Amino acid sequence: MPMNPSQFSVNEAWIFFQLNYEPIPTEMDGDLNCFALMDAASLFILSSTLVKGGSLSSSTDEIGKLFQSAYSHKQVWPERLFVQKGLQVSPLESEAESRSIKVVPVQKAEISVFTREACQAFKAHIQAGLGQ
Questions:
Q1: For a Cys staple, 13 with which of 40, 73, 105, 118, CB 3.0–4.6 Å?
Q2: pTM for this one?
């Protein structure tokens, strides 16, 4: 059975995912990727961060800030964190485990029901900003 928001209560599980489908070109920082933490029940984006070159492996500071910003909304950590398979997320896993959050790898298709609308809106926002 596919996952859906009605299976969760608020703050039970968060989803970590990439908001952009393609790298975001910038003159100053080169290509960026945008990653977000979303509450699985409400679909509320708790926090997001831009990462240079798209690599999370060297983004320990950004990951820490991402978690702190997400936590500030409700002052509660989730039980689980769903993470898209294929993303290089070792700093993210370390950050989650240090807060006793169970990291659960999932296929992109399994979380697309949660993330699709946010990704499409983000794409439209970026395209509007680039004048496309």
A1: 40
A2: 0.88
